[in-house]
Amino acid sequence: MRENDFFVIKAQEDGVNVIGLTRGNTTRFHHTEKLDKGETMIAQFTEHTSAVKVRGKAVIQTAHGEMKTEEES
Ligand code: TRP
User: Fold this and answer.
1) 17, 46, 55: residue to mutate for ligand 1 pocket, most atoms within 8 A of CB
2) pLDDT over 60 (residue 1)
3) For residues 10 and 34, what is the distance between their CA atoms, to the nearest angstrom?
4) Residue 73 confidence (pLDDT)
5) What are the boundaries of each domain within the chain?
6) 31 lines ligand 1 (CB under 6 A)
7) 6-64 has which CATH code?
8) Distance, CA of 26 to CA of 51 (rounded, Å)
9) Ligand 1 pocket, 35 CB below 6 A?
């Protein structure tokens, strides 16, 4: 994915976490954003962020398509 491609995360429950992971030799959390139901985050991969972890129920759109995280059991 090109660095200037945006991705969209829409929370479908309160307390969805969007966690940014560092680019480079070590992979660690550097930022956590908490979204409540209906809140949307629009973000990019950057020089600092190479991966994103989403925890909770959400719809995620990227250049590769749209996906929904699994419901918690
Ligand atoms: N300062 C971070 C950066 O430029 C902000 C950021 C970009 C971010 N994309 C993200 C944080 C995705 C969390 C998730 O890399």
Assistant:
1) 46
2) no
3) 11
4) 58
5) 6-64
6) yes
7) 2.60.40.50
8) 12
9) no
pLDDT in tens, 20-38: 999 999 999 999 999 999 9
* Residue range 40-60, pLDDT digits in tens: 999 999 999 999 999 999 999
The Cα–Cα gap between 21 and 31 comes to: 7
Question: Among 5, 7, 8, 31, which is best to mutate for testing ligand 1, by the most ligand atoms less than 8 A from CB?
Answer: 31
What is the C-alpha separation between 53 and 60, in angstroms, rounded?
Answer: 11
Residue 37 φ then ψ, to 5°: -50, 130
pLDDT at position 3 over 90: no
Name 1's Cβ contacts closer than 8 Å, sequence gap at least 6.
45, 62, 63, 64
